[in-house]
Each structure stands twice: as structure tokens, then as C-alpha cells.
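Need residues for this backbone.
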């Protein structure tokens, strides 16, 4: 596995900055490997306990129930059990989260989706949030606007000639 140092350094610089880290890029360019292997290994080597790293890949069938934004939010909040510890939340392929009718509002136009989940999780003081995505919705220039200027995008490219 190639270490992708330039992207790892970007993640390290943005670590614990209070903003969601949005890792975007073409399909199969290494977003998941960067987050779930390279960055996870960095955190573990720095002393983070494995239980403090909450990872969820939404493109797998066994995690299909977490494509519901309410279930996703409930699951992640249930994993953050100790307010004295820092948790790192990795959500892979966030665009798989469905947009659903808000069950708490009578307005049929009121919807809930991944933006609501991420903005809500950002309110947890001891959580650092990282998401990956690869479809046109995640690659649009409006992605940071959707997070109301509370996000940092890290655009991952396929291996370069230099790499």
C-alpha cells in the first residue's frame, strides 16, 4: 500500500479543528484506503484506542440500515460513550444515506439526509467527523456550502507519476 503522504499530512493538519473533513474524489482513487487504513494507522500509532475510532462503510449490505439518516445518527451517538475521550468518526460513501421524510414534522417537503446527520454530529464536542463520497453530489463545488462553511474538503486524485 502506498502511503499517500500528501493527503495524510492534510488530514493531520485538519485533525480536531471542529470542522467536518470531506474526502472527495473519483471512484477507486483511494479515499477509503486513505481514511480507514492510512489515517486510522496514524491515529492508532499516536495513542488513540481502537474503540475511539468509529468507522462505517455505507456501501456494504450489512450496513444498509444505516443509510437511513435517523438510524445512522443513533448508531454513531451510541458508540460515543465516554465524554472524556476523543472519538474519530469515519463514514465512508456518505452519499448512500437516503433522504427521507422528517417523521417529526407534518410538512411533506421537510426532509432529512446526510447533511442533517453530519451537522448534528458536529455538535458533539468530543467527536471529529470524516466523510468520504464519490458521486456528483459530493464532487460538486457546492459541497462546502451545504455544510455551511463548517467543512474542509480534501480532494483525492488517483496516483500521480511522482507517487
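Answer:
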Amino acid at each position: 500500500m502506498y502511503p499517500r503522504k500528501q493527503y495524510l499530512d492534510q488530514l493531520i493538519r485538519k485533525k480536531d479543528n471542529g470542522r467536518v473533513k470531506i474526502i472527495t474524489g473519483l471512484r477507486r482513487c483511494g479515499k477509503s484506503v486513505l481514511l480507514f487504513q492510512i489515517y486510522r494507522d496514524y491515529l492508532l500509532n499516536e495513542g488513540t484506542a481502537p474503540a475511539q475510532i468509529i468507522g462505517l462503510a455505507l456501501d456494504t449490505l450489512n450496513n444498509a440500515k444505516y443509510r437511513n439518516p435517523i438510524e445512522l445518527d443513533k448508531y454513531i451517538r451510541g458508540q460515543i460513550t465516554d465524554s472524556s475521550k476523543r472519538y474519530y468518526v469515519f463514514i465512508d460513501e456518505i452519499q448512500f444515506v437516503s433522504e427521507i421524510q422528517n417523521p417529526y414534522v407534518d410538512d411533506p417537503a421537510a426532509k432529512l439526509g446526510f447533511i442533517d446527520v453530519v451537522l448534528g454530529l458536529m455538535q458533539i464536542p468530543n467527536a471529529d467527523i470524516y466523510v468520504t463520497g464519490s458521486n456528483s453530489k459530493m464532487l460538486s463545488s457546492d459541497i462546502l456550502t451545504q455544510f455551511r462553511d463548517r467543512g474542509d474538503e480534501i480532494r483525492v486524485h488517483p496516483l500521480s507519476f511522482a507517487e
